[in-house]
Amino acid sequence: YSMQITALRFFTVYGPYGRPDMALFQFAEAAVKGKTIDVYNYGNMNRDFTYVDDIVNGIAILMNSLLNTEEPQAEIYNIGRGQQVQLMDFISEIEKNMGREIKKNLVPRHPADTLETWSDTTKLKELGWKPKVSIPEGVSKFCEWYKKYYGVNQ
Predict the structure, then answer these.
(1) Is the alpha carbon torsion for 153, 133, 35, 43 positive or negative?
(2) Termini Cα distance of the chain
(3) Are 120 and 78 in contact (CB under 8 A)?
(4) Pair 11, 5: CB distance under 8 Å
């Protein structure tokens, strides 16, 4: 139909002002309130966690690219770090930044859960994109925001 269609696939986005039902918020809340979290598949999962600033940067690069082309295209772009992180390492990073250990209930795999995510960002990188926020930096920024936003004292 000579239409310009672009689809974006985001990989495990996290950061300030995110959805409170997402794992990062639940982990931070558990650290603060001393709650126990269920960690599925006994923590044996990998995710391609992507900080929200990197997502926004990817969208901006794509928008600029698409605005400079007249040719119809149908493309799917993945926006993620392109790097897997073990879930338990991510939780440890949250604990470190919140200054508190999270109580964990290690449980079997949830039937709706995938064991790993990993983005192929080749097409986006060809447009000049690359993620800038490391996992330690992103988790630190999130935890700093969380403590300020929710009035958490160390």
Answers:
(1) negative
(2) 58
(3) yes
(4) no
Q: What are phi and psi of 117, to 5 degrees?
A: -125, 150
pLDDT in tens, 53-111: 999 999 999 999 988 877 778 899 999 999 999 999 999 999 999 999 999 999 999 99
Side-chain-facing half-sphere of 8: CA atoms under 13 Å: 16
Q: Which of 15, 56, 17, 40 lies closest to 139 in space, CA to CA? A: 15
Most distant CA pair in the chain, distance: 58
Gyration radius of the chain over CA positions: 18
User: Is the whole-model pTM more than 0.85?
Assistant: yes
- Which among 110, 105, 126, 119 has a CA at the least distance from the CA of 39? 105
| Residue located via tokens 């598949």 | 41
What is the Cα 133 distance to its own chain's centre? 11
| Three-state SS at 28 | helix
